[in-house]
Structures are given as structure tokens and as C-alpha cells.
Design a protein that fits this description.
Layout lengths: L1 H31 L20 H9 L2 H32 L5 H10 L5 H14 L6 H5 L6 H12 L3 H9 L4 H12 L1 H16 L3 H6 L8 H7 L8 H33 L3
Helix pairs in contact: 1-13, 2-13, 3-7, 3-10, 7-10, 8-9, 10-13, 12-13
Protein name: Sugar ABC transporter permease
Main location: membrane
Family: Belongs to the binding-protein-dependent transport system permease family.
Length: 271
């Protein structure tokens, strides 16, 4: 009886927490279909005169399709590069011992402590020297490697038995075959977790694209949405329409990789 009562209380807490988490997204969608809605208005679950006019205005004001493609392309490329660089570095730190390996790994992880705001000026000077201002490569280049990704995948690769490597070596396999045919398939949950995290960070990136990109048609989604906010008045239904569109790719990605994310976080010991 007591166990059932505790289970009921736990379910109620989980449901209330889920409602608290979902409400901002629900409010954003309701605001986007409520013409003239503002932040000070009381949210209504059923709008009086629902309309998609805010979405029409959004695409009329901005080349929104191009902006979404900009963010999507950068996010896909960033995720792809981080998967490649992080998995290769993680394999080296996990499977190839060398003098000072732990020190190098610790120094590499220490870069996670540096906030982006500290790196903006030297990175901008570097991109200017390379002639990459107002270019997609200038946005992409600083994010092709991820210290967090190396840490995540190294933890996952450490859980793969080294006996598999030894057996493959006896069969004549080298490091690249062991890496591609044995280790990577066994750390797919961690790879899926890194995919979601990398895509999310790139998709929501604001500061660096704001500094590097100057041409309006090259803007990313967060920068374009910030430009919709006026100095004195703001059409919040239009802003929320853009926010709803920006949520959809991440929601779809998470739904398809949810199982692997849970396995990856549990397997790597992250809390």
C-alpha cells in the first residue's frame, strides 16, 4: 500500500514537472496564432481568433526560408565535423597510450572552462587575418572540435573491452579498422548524444554568428529572430512564430534519437 502511494505521488510530481516544462512551448505556439498578442496579455489556451497571419508576415519580412537553411547547414556541418574530430581524438586518448596522455587530456578539458565571451576578441582577430569575416567558414571554423565531445566519447570508449581490440589485432586489423568496425558501432548511444548536443549548440548559437556575419541573407535563425524585436514596439506573435519554427528541427531530432541519448548519458556516467 505504501509503495503504491509513493508511486502515485512520484507520478504526480513528474506530471507537474512536465507541465511546467511544456507550458513555455505551448504559450509560444498560442501567442504565434493570436494576432496582436503581447507579453503582458493573459495566455489563453484557446485563442479568440486564431490565425496564421504571423507566419505569413514572418516570411514576408525576412528571407526566412534562406535563414532556416543557413542555420540548418551550419548545424549539420558543425555536428559532422565534431563527430569526426571528437571520435578520432577520443580513440587516441582511450586506446593509444603515450607519455603525458593524461596531462594533455586534462589541458584539453580545461578549455571547457573558458566561456565564449573570453574567446570572441582573439577569434575575431584570427578570422579577420584569414579573411573569413562575413563568411560561413568563419562561423564554422572555431566549432569543428569539441572538448566536451572528446570527453563524452572517451568515457564511452573506455567502457568497450580492450580484449576486442586484441582479438582484432591478432586477426591483422590496424587501428583504423578497429576504430571503424569495432569501437564506433559499440559507442553509438554516445555518438547520438553528441549529435544532439552539437546540433543544439550550433542551432542556438547567437553571439559568434552575430559578430562574424554581416550580410542579412547570411544570418542565422537566432540572429534573425533577435532582429524582429523593435526598440519601442514588438510584434510578439511574429517573434513567437519564428520561435516555434526554430523549435521543430530540434524536437524532431530528439524524438528520433531519444533512446540513444538515454543510453549514452547513462553509459558515460553523466548526471
Amino acid at each position: 500500500m505504501r509503495k503504491n502511494r509513493n508511486l502515485i505521488v512520484l507520478n504526480i510530481i513528474v506530471i507537474l514537472g512536465a507541465l511546467v516544462m511544456v507550458f513555455p512551448f505551448l504559450w509560444a505556439f498560442i501567442t504565434s496564432i493570436s494576432p496582436g498578442a503581447g507579453l503582458s496579455s493573459t495566455p489563453q489556451l484557446i485563442p479568440d481568433n486564431p490565425s496564421l497571419s504571423a507566419y505569413v508576415q514572418l516570411f514576408d519580412r525576412l528571407p526566412f526560408g534562406k535563414i532556416v537553411l543557413n542555420s540548418l547547414g551550419l548545424a549539420v556541418l558543425t555536428t559532422g565535423f565534431q563527430l569526426i574530430t571528437s571520435s578520432l581524438a577520443a580513440y587516441v586518448f582511450s586506446r593509444m597510450p603515450f607519455r603525458g596522455r593524461n596531462v594533455v587530456f586534462a589541458v584539453y578539458l580545461a578549455t571547457m572552462m573558458l566561456p565564449m565571451q573570453v574567446l570572441v576578441v582573439p577569434l575575431f582577430v584570427e578570422m579577420k587575418t584569414l579573411g573569413l569575416i562575413d563568411s560561413y567558414l568563419g562561423v564554422l571554423l572555431p566549432s569543428i572540435a569539441s572538448a566536451f565531445g572528446v570527453f563524452l566519447l572517451r568515457q564511452a570508449m573506455n567502457s568497450v573491452p580492450t580484449e576486442l581490440d586484441q582479438a582484432a589485432t591478432l586477426d591483422g586489423a590496424g587501428h583504423f579498422r578497429i576504430f571503424g568496425l569495432i569501437v564506433l558501432p559499440l559507442v553509438r548511444p554516445a555518438l547520438a548524444t553528441l549529435t544532439v548536443f552539437s546540433f543544439l549548440n550550433s542551432w542556438n548559437s547567437f553571439l559568434w554568428p552575430l559578430i562574424i556575419l554581416r550580410t542579412p541573407e547570411m544570418k542565422t535563425l537566432p540572429v534573425a529572430l533577435a532582429g524582429l524585436q523593435g526598440q519601442f514596439t514588438t510584434q510578439w506573435d511574429v517573434v513567437m512564430a519564428g520561435s516555434v519554427i526554430s523549435i521543430l528541427p530540434m524536437l524532431a531530432l530528439y524524438i528520433f534519437t531519444q533512446k540513444y541519448i538515454i543510453q549514452g548519458v547513462a553509459g558515460t556516467g553523466l548526471k
